[in-house]
Specification:
Elements lengths: L1 H9 L29 H20 L10 H13 L7 H34 L5 E3 L5 E6 L10 E10 L5 E4 H4 L3 E4 L5 H7 L7 E6 L20 E12 L29
Helix pairs in contact: 1-4
Length: 268
């Protein structure tokens, strides 16, 4: 059962949170503890239970299909913790969970692929949407005149990235800081699309999975076969030699659901 718990935790995703800013923040008062326990061990045990429960509540939402029986989950967890007689052996439970995840993920991938294809088929007929030979779709939100970057350049951009369901998985605007990266070290959809832009212009890209993260996805937030939507503003064009060394431009952030455009080369 220990392996099962570890597997369940492994399907968790990274969650980010932020504080809302107001002109005149109100003074908040920390609530008092709901209950006082008899000793430190009891207090620690309850606190641990709350922490584990909160993590599980988030993690089980990432299970393909998004459904689970909370009562039975708690029953199985309690049984394993107490060492009571279980309805499944640990080996059977582990194999069953693995098989369920494999099957469910495969079904979800097929669904994501079909959803993306249907979206792009309809989207390309909309006014202002253009399509390149590779299948990249784009829309000029704000045109500009001037030089366009080449594949051997680096660029500084502001951007936001969305899944088809509207989930915003990344935003340099929310972070309040644009990013700079070599144009030949990002996903194909970005490499191709940004070369169409002039400094000061804003484009919207509709990127099929073949030009994005492919059949693997990226981290927990970008699933396999995901069609991606990006809103991009090109701020600057720089020769690659002027940017920071590649070793400083971390690409692992894409697997955490942040700064996804910087680390996409490894997802192709």
């Amino acid at each position: 059962m220990k392996k099962t718990i570890i597997l369940l935790a492994a399907v968790g995703m990274i969650f980010t949170s932020g504080e809302a800013k107001t002109k005149k923040p109100k003074k908040t008062v920390e609530p008092a503890p709901v209950a006082v326990f008899a000793n430190d061990v009891d207090s620690m045990s309850y606190a641990l239970g709350l922490n584990v429960g909160a993590d599980f509540a988030k993690n089980i939402k990432t299970i393909p299909g998004g459904k689970s029986n909370i009562d039975l989950l708690i029953k199985g967890f309690t049984t394993a913790m107490k060492g009571d007689s279980a309805l499944m052996t640990a080996d059977f439970a582990n194999k069953y969970f693995q098989n369920f995840m494999t099957t469910a993920q495969a079904k979800e991938s097929v669904s994501k692929k079909a959803d993306g294809e249907a979206f792009l088929a309809e989207n390309k007929t909309k006014e202002g949407v253009k399509i390149t030979e590779s299948g990249l779709q784009y829309q000029v939100v704000l045109p500009a005149e001037g030089p366009k970057p080449q594949l051997t350049d680096s660029v500084e951009v502001h951007y936001q990235g969305f899944l088809l369901n509207g989930t915003k998985f990344d935003s340099s605007i929310d972070r309040g800081e644009p990013i700079t990266f070599p144009l030949n070290q990002v996903i194909s959809g970005w490499s191709e699309g940004i070369q169409l832009m002039s400094v000061g212009s804003k484009y919207k890209f509709f990127i099929p999975y073949t030009l994005g993260y492919g059949d693997k996805g990226a981290g927990a937030i970008i699933p396999p076969f995901a069609t991606l939507i990006f809103e991009v503003e090109l701020l600057k064009i720089k020769p690659i030699k002027e940017i920071v060394p590649a070793s400083v431009v971390k690409t692992s952030d894409a697997n955490k659901g942040t700064k996804s455009a910087k680390g996409t080369k490894r997802a192709k």
